[in-house]
Amino acid sequence: MSTHPPAIPSFARLIPLLGAMIAITPFAIDMSLPAMTTLATQFHTPMSDIQQSLSLYLIGYSAGMFVFGPLADKWGRRRFVIYGLLGFMLSSTALALTSNIELFLLLRFFQAFTGAAATVVIPGYVKEIYGKDTAKGMSYVMLIMMLAPLIAPSIGSLILVLGDWNLIFAFMAVYTLIIVIVAFYKLKLPSDDILTEHSQLSFVKNYKTVLTKPGIALNIMTSFVISFAYFSYLTASPLVFMTVFGLSPEKFTLIFTTNVGALMLATAINSQLVTRFRTDTLLRIATLLATIAGVALLTVNTLGMSYQYTAAALVPLMGCLGIMSVNADTIVLMKFQKEIGTASAVIGTLKFGFGALGGPILALFSTHTAVPFAILMLSAVMLAGLLQILNRSHLIPNESL
Length: 401
Fold this sequence. Notes:
- This protein is mostly helical.
- The protein has 18 helices and no strands.
- The two termini are about 25 Å apart.
Protein backbone atom coordinates (compact mmCIF):
# COMPACT_ATOMS: atom_id res chain seq x y z
CA MET A 1 0.00 0.00 0.00
CA SER A 2 1.34 3.41 -0.96
CA THR A 3 2.34 5.67 1.90
CA HIS A 4 2.28 8.78 -0.22
CA PRO A 5 -0.34 11.39 0.75
CA PRO A 6 -3.22 11.79 -1.68
CA ALA A 7 -2.70 14.36 -4.40
CA ILE A 8 -4.46 17.66 -4.13
CA PRO A 9 -7.56 17.40 -6.36
CA SER A 10 -7.72 19.21 -9.67
CA PHE A 11 -10.17 21.55 -7.96
CA ALA A 12 -7.10 23.29 -6.50
CA ARG A 13 -7.07 25.34 -9.70
CA LEU A 14 -10.04 27.19 -8.19
CA ILE A 15 -7.87 28.67 -5.43
CA PRO A 16 -7.07 31.85 -7.46
CA LEU A 17 -10.80 32.36 -7.99
CA LEU A 18 -11.54 31.89 -4.28
CA GLY A 19 -8.75 34.34 -3.45
CA ALA A 20 -10.18 36.88 -5.91
CA MET A 21 -13.63 36.44 -4.37
CA ILE A 22 -12.52 37.01 -0.80
CA ALA A 23 -10.52 40.03 -2.00
CA ILE A 24 -13.72 42.05 -2.54
CA THR A 25 -13.68 42.99 1.15
CA PRO A 26 -10.14 44.45 1.28
CA PHE A 27 -10.83 46.17 -2.04
CA ALA A 28 -13.98 47.73 -0.59
CA ILE A 29 -12.13 48.93 2.50
CA ASP A 30 -8.62 49.76 1.33
CA MET A 31 -9.35 51.45 -2.00
CA SER A 32 -11.36 54.09 -0.17
CA LEU A 33 -8.68 54.89 2.45
CA PRO A 34 -6.81 57.51 0.36
CA ALA A 35 -10.18 59.15 -0.44
CA MET A 36 -11.28 59.64 3.17
CA THR A 37 -10.33 63.31 3.32
CA THR A 38 -11.92 63.86 -0.10
CA LEU A 39 -15.12 62.14 1.02
CA ALA A 40 -15.28 64.31 4.13
CA THR A 41 -14.99 67.42 1.95
CA GLN A 42 -17.48 66.22 -0.65
CA PHE A 43 -20.11 65.25 1.92
CA HIS A 44 -19.42 68.30 4.13
CA THR A 45 -18.96 66.08 7.16
CA PRO A 46 -16.16 65.62 9.75
CA MET A 47 -13.34 63.21 9.02
CA SER A 48 -14.39 61.19 12.06
CA ASP A 49 -17.76 60.42 10.40
CA ILE A 50 -16.04 59.05 7.31
CA GLN A 51 -13.69 57.05 9.51
CA GLN A 52 -16.67 55.47 11.27
CA SER A 53 -18.00 54.35 7.88
CA LEU A 54 -15.29 51.68 8.06
CA SER A 55 -16.72 50.49 11.36
CA LEU A 56 -20.19 50.45 9.79
CA TYR A 57 -18.84 48.34 6.94
CA LEU A 58 -17.40 45.86 9.41
CA ILE A 59 -20.72 45.66 11.25
CA GLY A 60 -22.54 44.97 7.97
CA TYR A 61 -20.05 42.28 7.04
CA SER A 62 -20.33 40.72 10.47
CA ALA A 63 -24.13 40.64 10.25
CA GLY A 64 -23.99 39.11 6.78
CA MET A 65 -21.70 36.30 7.90
CA PHE A 66 -23.97 35.58 10.87
CA VAL A 67 -27.00 35.22 8.60
CA PHE A 68 -25.53 33.46 5.57
CA GLY A 69 -23.07 31.00 7.16
CA PRO A 70 -25.64 28.49 8.51
CA LEU A 71 -27.86 28.95 5.43
CA ALA A 72 -24.96 27.99 3.17
CA ASP A 73 -24.35 24.85 5.25
CA LYS A 74 -27.98 23.83 4.78
CA TRP A 75 -28.68 24.87 1.17
CA GLY A 76 -25.24 24.74 -0.47
CA ARG A 77 -22.52 27.29 -1.02
CA ARG A 78 -22.69 28.14 -4.73
CA ARG A 79 -26.00 30.05 -4.72
CA PHE A 80 -24.75 32.32 -1.95
CA VAL A 81 -21.59 33.06 -3.91
CA ILE A 82 -23.59 34.19 -6.95
CA TYR A 83 -26.26 36.16 -5.05
CA GLY A 84 -23.71 37.73 -2.72
CA LEU A 85 -21.46 38.92 -5.55
CA LEU A 86 -24.44 40.35 -7.44
CA GLY A 87 -25.58 42.25 -4.34
CA PHE A 88 -22.08 43.59 -3.79
CA MET A 89 -21.85 44.70 -7.42
CA LEU A 90 -25.21 46.52 -7.34
CA SER A 91 -24.47 48.32 -4.07
CA SER A 92 -21.04 49.37 -5.38
CA THR A 93 -22.74 50.84 -8.44
CA ALA A 94 -25.19 52.72 -6.23
CA LEU A 95 -22.33 54.04 -4.07
CA ALA A 96 -20.68 55.48 -7.18
CA LEU A 97 -23.85 57.46 -7.88
CA THR A 98 -24.76 58.73 -4.40
CA SER A 99 -24.26 62.31 -3.20
CA ASN A 100 -25.81 61.98 0.27
CA ILE A 101 -23.82 60.97 3.35
CA GLU A 102 -26.72 59.12 4.99
CA LEU A 103 -27.38 57.08 1.83
CA PHE A 104 -23.65 56.51 1.44
CA LEU A 105 -23.43 54.98 4.91
CA LEU A 106 -26.52 52.82 4.33
CA LEU A 107 -25.14 51.51 1.05
CA ARG A 108 -21.80 50.72 2.65
CA PHE A 109 -23.63 48.55 5.18
CA PHE A 110 -25.56 46.78 2.40
CA GLN A 111 -22.41 46.35 0.32
CA ALA A 112 -20.72 44.58 3.22
CA PHE A 113 -23.81 42.54 4.15
CA THR A 114 -24.26 41.08 0.67
CA GLY A 115 -20.54 40.57 0.12
CA ALA A 116 -20.44 38.39 3.23
CA ALA A 117 -22.78 35.88 1.54
CA ALA A 118 -20.07 35.13 -1.02
CA THR A 119 -17.02 35.14 1.23
CA VAL A 120 -18.33 33.21 4.25
CA VAL A 121 -18.39 29.98 2.20
CA ILE A 122 -14.76 30.17 1.06
CA PRO A 123 -13.16 28.35 4.05
CA GLY A 124 -15.57 25.47 3.42
CA TYR A 125 -14.48 25.23 -0.19
CA VAL A 126 -10.81 25.34 0.84
CA LYS A 127 -11.30 22.54 3.38
CA GLU A 128 -13.11 20.47 0.73
CA ILE A 129 -10.15 20.88 -1.62
CA TYR A 130 -7.24 20.49 0.83
CA GLY A 131 -8.59 18.32 3.65
CA LYS A 132 -6.03 17.94 6.44
CA ASP A 133 -3.81 20.49 4.66
CA THR A 134 -6.44 23.20 5.09
CA ALA A 135 -3.93 25.56 6.72
CA LYS A 136 -1.83 25.39 3.55
CA GLY A 137 -4.86 26.03 1.34
CA MET A 138 -5.98 28.94 3.52
CA SER A 139 -2.47 30.40 3.30
CA TYR A 140 -2.65 30.29 -0.50
CA VAL A 141 -6.07 31.95 -0.53
CA MET A 142 -4.94 34.63 1.91
CA LEU A 143 -1.79 35.21 -0.11
CA ILE A 144 -3.84 35.89 -3.25
CA MET A 145 -6.39 37.90 -1.31
CA MET A 146 -3.66 40.12 0.16
CA LEU A 147 -2.80 41.40 -3.30
CA ALA A 148 -5.95 43.51 -2.91
CA PRO A 149 -4.82 45.59 0.10
CA LEU A 150 -1.34 45.70 -1.42
CA ILE A 151 -2.53 47.43 -4.59
CA ALA A 152 -5.90 48.85 -3.51
CA PRO A 153 -4.64 52.09 -1.88
CA SER A 154 -2.45 52.75 -4.93
CA ILE A 155 -5.43 52.20 -7.24
CA GLY A 156 -7.52 54.49 -5.06
CA SER A 157 -4.84 57.19 -5.14
CA LEU A 158 -4.46 56.86 -8.91
CA ILE A 159 -8.20 57.15 -9.42
CA LEU A 160 -8.24 60.33 -7.32
CA VAL A 161 -5.53 61.77 -9.57
CA LEU A 162 -7.43 60.86 -12.76
CA GLY A 163 -10.96 61.56 -11.56
CA ASP A 164 -13.32 61.70 -8.59
CA TRP A 165 -13.94 59.32 -5.67
CA ASN A 166 -17.04 57.91 -7.42
CA LEU A 167 -14.78 56.02 -9.80
CA ILE A 168 -13.39 53.99 -6.89
CA PHE A 169 -16.76 52.35 -6.35
CA ALA A 170 -17.33 52.00 -10.09
CA PHE A 171 -14.05 50.05 -10.22
CA MET A 172 -15.34 47.76 -7.45
CA ALA A 173 -18.54 47.13 -9.41
CA VAL A 174 -16.65 46.16 -12.58
CA TYR A 175 -14.22 43.93 -10.66
CA THR A 176 -17.09 42.09 -8.99
CA LEU A 177 -18.95 41.68 -12.29
CA ILE A 178 -15.93 39.87 -13.73
CA ILE A 179 -15.66 37.63 -10.67
CA VAL A 180 -19.35 36.68 -10.68
CA ILE A 181 -19.20 35.72 -14.37
CA VAL A 182 -16.17 33.47 -13.80
CA ALA A 183 -17.73 31.95 -10.66
CA PHE A 184 -20.99 31.22 -12.48
CA TYR A 185 -19.23 29.06 -15.07
CA LYS A 186 -16.25 27.66 -13.13
CA LEU A 187 -17.15 27.32 -9.44
CA LYS A 188 -18.65 23.82 -9.28
CA LEU A 189 -17.42 21.47 -6.56
CA PRO A 190 -18.90 18.06 -5.58
CA SER A 191 -20.43 19.42 -2.36
CA ASP A 192 -22.58 21.81 -4.41
CA ASP A 193 -24.47 18.85 -5.91
CA ILE A 194 -24.29 16.14 -3.25
CA LEU A 195 -27.06 16.78 -0.72
CA THR A 196 -25.47 14.53 1.90
CA GLU A 197 -22.62 17.04 2.12
CA HIS A 198 -25.05 19.66 3.45
CA SER A 199 -26.00 20.09 7.07
CA GLN A 200 -29.51 18.89 7.90
CA LEU A 201 -29.70 21.02 11.04
CA SER A 202 -31.74 24.19 11.40
CA PHE A 203 -30.24 27.67 11.53
CA VAL A 204 -30.28 27.71 15.33
CA LYS A 205 -29.07 24.11 15.73
CA ASN A 206 -26.13 24.76 13.43
CA TYR A 207 -25.00 27.53 15.75
CA LYS A 208 -25.64 25.37 18.82
CA THR A 209 -23.50 22.58 17.35
CA VAL A 210 -20.60 24.94 16.70
CA LEU A 211 -20.75 26.89 19.95
CA THR A 212 -21.07 23.80 22.17
CA LYS A 213 -18.22 21.88 20.55
CA PRO A 214 -15.80 20.89 23.35
CA GLY A 215 -12.72 23.12 23.54
CA ILE A 216 -13.93 25.50 20.82
CA ALA A 217 -14.68 28.66 22.81
CA LEU A 218 -11.11 29.73 23.60
CA ASN A 219 -9.98 28.92 20.05
CA ILE A 220 -12.68 31.17 18.63
CA MET A 221 -11.83 33.92 21.12
CA THR A 222 -8.18 33.74 20.08
CA SER A 223 -9.19 34.14 16.44
CA PHE A 224 -11.34 37.23 16.92
CA VAL A 225 -8.85 38.92 19.29
CA ILE A 226 -6.19 38.59 16.59
CA SER A 227 -8.60 40.05 14.08
CA PHE A 228 -9.44 42.90 16.45
CA ALA A 229 -5.77 43.93 16.40
CA TYR A 230 -5.72 43.85 12.59
CA PHE A 231 -8.90 45.87 12.18
CA SER A 232 -7.74 48.36 14.80
CA TYR A 233 -4.76 48.99 12.55
CA LEU A 234 -6.96 49.16 9.47
CA THR A 235 -9.35 51.65 11.04
CA ALA A 236 -6.77 53.79 12.81
CA SER A 237 -3.88 53.88 10.33
CA PRO A 238 -5.25 56.73 8.16
CA LEU A 239 -5.85 58.84 11.28
CA VAL A 240 -2.48 57.97 12.83
CA PHE A 241 -0.34 58.62 9.77
CA MET A 242 -2.29 61.36 7.96
CA THR A 243 -3.60 63.29 10.98
CA VAL A 244 -1.24 62.61 13.91
CA PHE A 245 1.94 62.48 11.84
CA GLY A 246 0.63 64.74 9.06
CA LEU A 247 1.67 62.54 6.14
CA SER A 248 0.34 62.95 2.62
CA PRO A 249 -1.99 60.32 1.14
CA GLU A 250 0.88 59.15 -1.05
CA LYS A 251 3.22 58.54 1.90
CA PHE A 252 0.44 56.84 3.84
CA THR A 253 -0.22 54.57 0.84
CA LEU A 254 3.46 53.60 0.75
CA ILE A 255 3.48 52.69 4.45
CA PHE A 256 0.19 50.82 4.18
CA THR A 257 1.45 48.87 1.16
CA THR A 258 4.65 47.96 3.00
CA ASN A 259 2.67 46.49 5.88
CA VAL A 260 0.48 44.49 3.51
CA GLY A 261 3.67 43.24 1.87
CA ALA A 262 4.80 42.03 5.29
CA LEU A 263 1.49 40.19 5.68
CA MET A 264 1.93 38.53 2.29
CA LEU A 265 5.51 37.48 2.97
CA ALA A 266 4.58 36.04 6.36
CA THR A 267 1.62 34.16 4.87
CA ALA A 268 3.82 32.72 2.11
CA ILE A 269 6.31 31.52 4.73
CA ASN A 270 3.46 30.03 6.76
CA SER A 271 2.21 28.04 3.74
CA GLN A 272 5.54 26.21 3.74
CA LEU A 273 5.92 25.84 7.50
CA VAL A 274 2.49 24.27 8.10
CA THR A 275 3.61 21.05 6.42
CA ARG A 276 6.49 20.71 8.91
CA PHE A 277 5.21 22.09 12.20
CA ARG A 278 2.03 21.91 14.24
CA THR A 279 -0.44 24.70 13.57
CA ASP A 280 -0.70 25.61 17.26
CA THR A 281 3.10 25.78 17.53
CA LEU A 282 3.29 28.30 14.69
CA LEU A 283 0.49 30.26 16.33
CA ARG A 284 2.37 30.48 19.66
CA ILE A 285 5.68 31.49 18.06
CA ALA A 286 4.02 34.20 15.98
CA THR A 287 2.21 35.50 19.07
CA LEU A 288 5.48 35.80 20.98
CA LEU A 289 7.13 37.71 18.13
CA ALA A 290 4.05 39.92 17.75
CA THR A 291 4.22 40.78 21.46
CA ILE A 292 7.83 41.90 21.08
CA ALA A 293 6.90 44.06 18.08
CA GLY A 294 3.91 45.47 20.01
CA VAL A 295 6.16 46.50 22.89
CA ALA A 296 8.45 48.24 20.39
CA LEU A 297 5.45 50.05 18.84
CA LEU A 298 4.31 51.34 22.23
CA THR A 299 7.84 52.34 23.22
CA VAL A 300 8.58 54.49 20.16
CA ASN A 301 5.25 56.30 20.47
CA THR A 302 5.56 56.83 24.22
CA LEU A 303 8.94 58.44 23.55
CA GLY A 304 7.39 60.63 20.83
CA MET A 305 9.68 59.38 18.10
CA SER A 306 9.02 60.12 14.40
CA TYR A 307 6.63 58.22 12.16
CA GLN A 308 9.46 56.15 10.64
CA TYR A 309 9.85 54.25 13.91
CA THR A 310 6.12 53.56 14.15
CA ALA A 311 6.15 52.29 10.56
CA ALA A 312 9.19 50.10 11.28
CA ALA A 313 7.58 48.51 14.36
CA LEU A 314 4.36 47.80 12.46
CA VAL A 315 6.06 45.73 9.73
CA PRO A 316 6.95 42.69 11.90
CA LEU A 317 3.78 43.12 13.95
CA MET A 318 1.52 42.91 10.90
CA GLY A 319 3.48 39.96 9.51
CA CYS A 320 3.00 38.05 12.75
CA LEU A 321 -0.71 38.90 12.81
CA GLY A 322 -1.03 37.31 9.37
CA ILE A 323 0.49 34.03 10.56
CA MET A 324 -1.58 34.11 13.74
CA SER A 325 -4.84 34.67 11.87
CA VAL A 326 -4.45 31.83 9.36
CA ASN A 327 -3.44 29.26 11.97
CA ALA A 328 -6.02 30.31 14.57
CA ASP A 329 -8.83 30.03 11.99
CA THR A 330 -7.59 26.65 10.78
CA ILE A 331 -7.60 25.20 14.31
CA VAL A 332 -11.31 26.06 14.54
CA LEU A 333 -12.29 24.91 11.03
CA MET A 334 -10.63 21.51 11.39
CA LYS A 335 -13.06 20.63 14.17
CA PHE A 336 -16.04 20.57 11.80
CA GLN A 337 -17.28 18.70 8.71
CA LYS A 338 -20.76 19.88 7.63
CA GLU A 339 -20.95 23.04 9.75
CA ILE A 340 -17.94 24.84 8.29
CA GLY A 341 -20.07 27.73 7.01
CA THR A 342 -21.51 28.22 10.48
CA ALA A 343 -18.05 27.98 12.05
CA SER A 344 -16.80 30.56 9.54
CA ALA A 345 -19.80 32.72 10.39
CA VAL A 346 -19.05 32.55 14.10
CA ILE A 347 -15.42 33.48 13.49
CA GLY A 348 -16.32 36.19 10.96
CA THR A 349 -19.15 37.69 13.01
CA LEU A 350 -16.94 38.06 16.05
CA LYS A 351 -13.95 39.20 13.99
CA PHE A 352 -15.71 41.94 12.10
CA GLY A 353 -18.11 42.80 14.91
CA PHE A 354 -15.36 43.36 17.45
CA GLY A 355 -13.12 44.80 14.74
CA ALA A 356 -15.73 47.52 14.28
CA LEU A 357 -15.14 48.56 17.89
CA GLY A 358 -11.56 49.59 17.16
CA GLY A 359 -12.50 52.98 15.71
CA PRO A 360 -14.91 54.03 18.50
CA ILE A 361 -12.50 52.85 21.24
CA LEU A 362 -9.62 54.82 19.75
CA ALA A 363 -11.88 57.86 19.33
CA LEU A 364 -12.93 57.58 22.99
CA PHE A 365 -9.35 57.54 24.26
CA SER A 366 -7.91 59.90 21.66
CA THR A 367 -4.90 61.93 22.84
CA HIS A 368 -3.94 63.26 19.38
CA THR A 369 -0.99 60.84 19.50
CA ALA A 370 -0.47 57.25 18.37
CA VAL A 371 -0.09 55.98 21.96
CA PRO A 372 -3.71 54.74 22.37
CA PHE A 373 -3.38 52.91 19.06
CA ALA A 374 -0.16 51.23 20.21
CA ILE A 375 -1.69 50.25 23.56
CA LEU A 376 -4.70 48.72 21.82
CA MET A 377 -2.55 46.69 19.43
CA LEU A 378 -0.26 45.39 22.19
CA SER A 379 -3.20 44.58 24.50
CA ALA A 380 -4.93 42.54 21.79
CA VAL A 381 -1.80 40.51 21.02
CA MET A 382 -1.12 39.85 24.71
CA LEU A 383 -4.73 38.76 25.23
CA ALA A 384 -4.38 36.33 22.32
CA GLY A 385 -1.32 34.88 24.03
CA LEU A 386 -3.16 34.52 27.34
CA LEU A 387 -6.04 32.69 25.62
CA GLN A 388 -3.60 30.25 24.04
CA ILE A 389 -2.06 29.52 27.44
CA LEU A 390 -5.50 28.82 28.90
CA ASN A 391 -6.39 26.63 25.91
CA ARG A 392 -3.33 24.36 25.86
CA SER A 393 -5.20 21.40 27.32
CA HIS A 394 -8.04 21.63 24.76
CA LEU A 395 -6.13 21.55 21.47
CA ILE A 396 -7.30 19.14 18.77
CA PRO A 397 -5.15 16.07 18.06
CA ASN A 398 -1.68 16.49 16.64
CA GLU A 399 -2.46 14.89 13.29
CA SER A 400 -5.19 17.45 12.66
CA LEU A 401 -2.93 20.39 13.27
